């Protein structure tokens, strides 16, 4: 069963990549570069991208700290919805097909996730498809960056998972127990990172929507399985998108790959209204 989920997702990725690769106008002459040279190039920019991403806070200006503060404040405000959303998810659990919940678990697991991306990268490398290689480098670079951040914060914050029944404001910083590793959500970070990285390669809104819909399955399955609070998922989603956009911008500015146009970015803002609090991403 596990292998079926991995192979199904990988097949979808390869089909998607072939589709958009064929739809874009090729600006590349016949590639005579060796596989080894391409691997060195990709590894170099992966390492540079991770270093760039992790070092960004050193260069932040006032507006950057304001954006981070807004994200944190928005997450804190959203915690008011933790219990109501948990109750709603619990009540609807029996109506969610088991195959979707299993898919969310298996794909969000690191070993399966990286196997899928390894297959994607291998395809791009062997076929010398620059679009696929670039997408895979974007995914792995963003995943390493977000993974390092997530691993530290998950332990440092020590938030209790919903299933512990300790409440959404219960914390045990630097606890080694898995029940205190709720924030942020690793499954969400990995799935959103891959979905956003791939969706950025398309202009068609329907294709983008389909990719994001598939990427949303792991976060939702974790919510339904009572493994995370809605704030865990919301913060992880925003963090993943911010990191992917940052890495994409870095690769573009470095002229590492053939970008047909400047990548779009998302600016996040907190909105307030009558009895509502929202996070809006402007494309």
From TrEMBL:
UniProt-listed InterPro entries: PAP2/HPO (IPR000326), PAP2/HPO_sf (IPR036938)
Domain Phosphatidic acid phosphatase type 2/haloperoxidase: 138-244
The organism's taxonomic lineage, starting at the top: Bacteria, Pseudomonadati, Bacteroidota, Flavobacteriia, Flavobacteriales
Protein name as annotated: Phosphatase PAP2 family protein
């Amino acid at each position: 069963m596990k292998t079926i989920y991995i192979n199904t997702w990988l097949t979808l990725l390869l089909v998607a990549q072939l589709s958009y690769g064929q739809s874009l106008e090729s600006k590349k002459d016949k590639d005579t570069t060796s596989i080894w040279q391409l691997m060195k190039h990709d590894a170099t920019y992966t390492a540079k991208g991770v270093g760039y991403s992790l070092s960004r806070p050193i260069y932040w200006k006032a507006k950057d700290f304001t954006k981070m503060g807004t994200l944190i404040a928005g997450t804190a405000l959203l915690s008011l919805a933790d219990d109501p959303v948990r109750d709603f998810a619990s009540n609807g659990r029996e109506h969610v097909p088991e195959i979707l919940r299993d898919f969310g678990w298996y794909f969000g697991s690191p070993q399966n996730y990286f196997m899928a991306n390894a297959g994607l990268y291998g395809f791009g490398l062997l076929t010398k498809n620059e679009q696929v290689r670039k997408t895979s480098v974007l995914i792995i670079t963003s995943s390493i960056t977000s993974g390092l951040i997530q691993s530290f914060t998950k332990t440092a914050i020590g938030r209790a998972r919903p299933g512990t029944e300790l409440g959404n404001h219960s914390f045990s910083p630097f606890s080694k127990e898995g029940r205190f590793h709720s924030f942020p959500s690793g499954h969400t970070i990995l799935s959103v990172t891959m979905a956003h990285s791939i969706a950025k390669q398309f202009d068609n809104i329907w294709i983008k929507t389909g990719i994001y819909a598939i990427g949303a399955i792991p976060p939702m399955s974790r919510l339904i399985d009572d493994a995370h609070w809605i704030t865990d998922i919301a913060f992880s989603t925003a963090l993943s998108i911010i990191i992917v956009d940052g890495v994409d911008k870095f690769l573009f500015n470095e002229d590492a790959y053939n970008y047909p146009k400047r990548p779009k970015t998302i600016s996040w803002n907190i909105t307030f209204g009558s009895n509502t609090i929202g996070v809006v991403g402007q494309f």
